[in-house]
Amino acid sequence: VVVGLLDNESPDSNRLTLVTPKSENDVRLQATLGNQNPTGLPVGAVSSTHLIDEVSKLIDSVKLIHKGKLICDDDKDLLLQDVHSINLRNDEKLDLSKVTILSDKVASLSRTIIYKGELNVSPERINNVDLQEYFIAVCK
Fold first, then answer.
1. 55, exposed or middle or buried, with CB in 10 Å at 0-12, 13-18, 19+?
2. Disulfide check for 137: which of 11, 70, 114, 121 has CB 3.0–4.6 Å away?
């Protein structure tokens, strides 16, 4: 489940875009709110989708429910700043005690670890993780 908030002070505060898997090619659905929000509070939009790459361009915050439990409630940009991946040789030893391992995929000669936190390695070895990779890692 992905939640995005709209700012009532924006010129388009009466219009919101919900992302929905309506079809493979068209994932946007626009709705007009009119005067349905007299409180002046932010308006929430909820979308349930598997098109994470598309929806990640539209949202500010992420709430992820997996097996009935809220496992993520973060600002999207702050979350993705703290989640990375690294590729290692299978025989390579690395101190992972200071990070939270979200996923560890082992292949014949290498492994890819998606983790949250900071590793003491050369920055060139660290890869950014997109929202879809994060969702897959934490929902296994």
1. buried
2. 114
What's the pLDDT tens digit per position in 83-125? 999 999 999 989 999 999 999 999 999 999 999 999 999 999 9
| Nearest residue to 45 (alpha-carbon basis) of 64, 58, 57 | 58
Q: What is the C-alpha to C-alpha distance for residues 119 and 116, in angstroms, rounded to an integer? A: 9
| Sequence-distant (≥ 6) Cβ neighbours of residue 95 within 8 angstroms | 120
Contact (CB, 8 A) for 16 and 31: yes
What backbone phi and psi angles, to 5 degrees, belong to 35? -100, 35
Q: How many CA atoms lie within 13 A of 65 on its CB side?
A: 9
